[in-house]
Structure formats: structure tokens, C-alpha cells
Amino acid sequence: MNKYVNDFLLMFQFLTRIPVNISLKCEKENFKRGAIFLPLVGFIVGGIQWLIYMLFFKVTSLGIAAIFAVLSGILVTGALHVDGLGDTCDGFYAFKGKDRIIEIMKDSRIGTFACIAIVMDIMLKVNSLAYSSQYSSALIIIAVPVISKFSIVFLSFVGKPAKSTGSGNLFVGNMSGIVVSISAFIAAAIIYIMLGLKVTAAMFITAVIITLLVNKYSESKINGLTGDLLGANNEIVEIFVMLVYIALYKI
């Protein structure tokens, strides 16, 4: 199998719950090379959400369509990023020190802060999606996961691992400038074709700023990043990108 096909399928298998019943090479180098395809994985996930949205919009209301679009994204990704957001909030707001924070983040049980974060995440996404698609293009549904997946690559590049082991280390500290550049080019090309230059620039500026802030905050809490932080950043970037997109059409 071509190494790039292998690495794309590896990313698709790792980040979604859509079956890929093929034996794939999954060394650290495969994850590094495969990271360039994360925006394409986001494009597929967003495409599924867009199809679900359009289907329900034709037979129900805009609000219900937005709910099912957000729900489909969670189901397709196996709630991977939402779980990361919840675990991060449980750990970060326990105020117990680095080791205890990481221990709490690894706990499969859900705490108060995780519950609040997940509810707010879903509410903000549903309302932002319903509003933005009403007043502009529903293609924002596809663009959002494209830019958020790029932010995972960028965060992995600028950050450092908080632990010596963990699934997050397949990405964190394993990226190169070339990988980030190619990933950025793919994401920018997709968003530009769908929504134009102004939206593309606004999304990238927002994603980069939020990602740098998340990285800085993570360093202050646990001296680095974990896989949960990658998922949390994905969710936070998606929310802020949609809010900025709405602001562009309100100004």
C-alpha cells in the first residue's frame, strides 16, 4: 500500500468511528506524516454533518437540523474531542497540582466541570450553527471541522508533551514545520473554495490565537499537552471560529 494512502486511512481510522477494516502501519512516523491529512478528515466529517443538516432542514426546522448536525459530528468522531474537553475541564479546575490534574484527566468518570463544559459546548455549537447557516452559507458546517483539525496539528507543533507516554504523544512534539505548512495549505484551500478569502483569513487568525492561548494555559497548569488537550482545543477552536464567522456577518 502507498505510504500516503496508509497514513490518510490511519488518521481516518484514529479520528472517526467509520470502519476501516484494513491492517495499517501505525508507527510514530506514520502519525507525523499522516497529520497533513487531518483537514481532509475534517472535511469528510463536516461533509457528513452538512448532509445531515440539509436532510433535516428540508423536513423539520433550522434548530432541529442544527441539533442533528452537531450530534452527527459527535457520533462520527466517537465523542473523541468532546471527551477530551470534559476530561480537561475536570482536571484543570480541580486545583490539585500537575500530577493530580493528569490523574483526574485519565479518570473515565465524568465530573461537574466536565458536565458543564460538554453542555455548554453543544449548546454553543447548535445555536451558532443555527444562526450562521440562517444568515449566510451552510458550508460553514464543513469549514469548521477543517480548521479545527488543522489546529490539532498546529498545537502539536508549538506544544510539548506533559507526559512521557500517552496517545497524545503520537502528535505532540512529533510535528515538523513542513507538516504544519502542508496541513495549513490543504485547510486554507478547502475553506477558500467554499467561503472565500475573508472568511479563510478570519478562521486561521482565530484558530492560531486560540491554539496559542490553549498551549500557554496548558503549560501553566501541567507543563505541556496531553491527548485530551488536543481534543479540548479542537472544540474550543470550533466554537470561537463560528462566533467570529457570525461576527463577520453582523458587522
Automatic annotation (TrEMBL):
Per its UniProt record, the required cofactor names are: Mg(2+)
Show the NCBIfam families listed in the entry. cobS (TIGR00317)
InterPro entries registered for this protein in UniProt: CobS
What Gene Ontology terms describe what this protein does at the molecular function level? Answer: adenosylcobinamide-GDP ribazoletransferase activity
Which protein family is it in?
Belongs to the CobS family.
Enzyme class at the top of the EC tree: transferase
Which keywords does this chain's UniProt record carry? Cell membrane, Cobalamin biosynthesis, Magnesium, Membrane, Transferase, Transmembrane, Transmembrane helix
Q: Which domain of life is it from?
A: Bacteria
Instruction: Locate the coiled-coil region(s) and give their ranges.
Output: none
Catalytic activity annotation: alpha-ribazole 5'-phosphate + adenosylcob(III)inamide-GDP = adenosylcob(III)alamin 5'-phosphate + GMP + H(+); alpha-ribazole + adenosylcob(III)inamide-GDP = adenosylcob(III)alamin + GMP + H(+)
Q: What is its EC number?
A: 2.7.8.26
| Protein name, as recorded | Adenosylcobinamide-GDP ribazoletransferase
Describe its membrane topology: Multi-pass membrane protein
